[in-house]
TrEMBL record:
Molecular function GO labels: acetyl-CoA carboxylase activity; ATP binding
UniProt superkingdom: Eukaryota
InterPro entries registered for this protein in UniProt: ACCA, AcCoA_COase_cen
GO biological process, one term: fatty acid biosynthetic process
Residue stretches making up the Acetyl-CoA carboxylase central domain: 2-183
Pfam families on file: ACC_central (PF08326)
One cellular-component annotation, GO: mitochondrion
Name listed for the protein in its UniProt record: Acetyl-CoA carboxylase 2
């Protein structure tokens, strides 16, 4: 696992070395800059150009490598976080899928675990139910509805909760959060 990780990190670094050369300006200007940088020896220039010519295939590979390396483990090593941060800085359209995937992984690494978010949401639901268990207090659910925390992946589990009032509260929070997100986009 350690050797695989070092090989993948090396591949990601090489991808960055090539693609950052083509981020500053138009393609022709980038090639001229490369020629100036490696003036007596044109081999690195040709290697860089040929590598960049396959950017769409490399993007697919890099996103797959990121998924494989970070897929199930939300915690990231410092070296990987540095590389992912650099990948998010790629600003050309041709690199947008890689930059987006790197950004998604970084965001996911900063989220609390699924279990922690599930337990927090459940405690809020249970505290929102009145002491007789017949109805919920919408004011108490407002914390969840307006919360900045990502809970859309947690809420569907409560649709089938053993307590019917918790089910109704979960559905209400889900719908209201959906409307808030939708109205923010308009």
């Amino acid at each position: 696992r350690g050797y695989m990780k070092s090989v993948v990190l090396d591949l990601l670094k090489r991808y960055l070395e090539v693609e950052t050369q083509f981020q500053q300006a138009h393609y022709d200007k980038c090639v001229i800059n490369l020629r100036e940088q490696y003036k007596p020896n044109m081999t690195p220039v040709l290697e860089c150009i040929f590598s960049h010519a396959q950017v769409s295939k490399k993007n697919i590979l890099v996103t797959m490598l990121i998924d494989q390396l970070c897929g199930r483990d939300p915690t990231l090593a410092d070296e990987l976080m540095v590389i992912l941060n650099e990948l998010t800085q790629l600003n050309k359209v041709e690199n947008s899928k890689v930059a987006l995937r790197a950004r998604q992984v970084l965001i996911a690494s900063h989220l609390p675990s699924y279990e922690l978010r599930h337990n927090q949401v459940e405690s809020i639901f249970l505290s929102a139910i009145d002491m007789y268990g017949h109805q919920f207090c919408p004011e108490n659910l407002k914390k969840l509805i307006l919360s900045e925390t990502s809970i859309f992946d947690v809420l569907p589990n409560f649709f089938y909760h053993s307590d019917r009032v918790v089910c109704m509260a979960a559905l209400e929070v889900y719908v209201r959060r959906g409307y808030i997100a939708y109205s923010a986009l308009i």
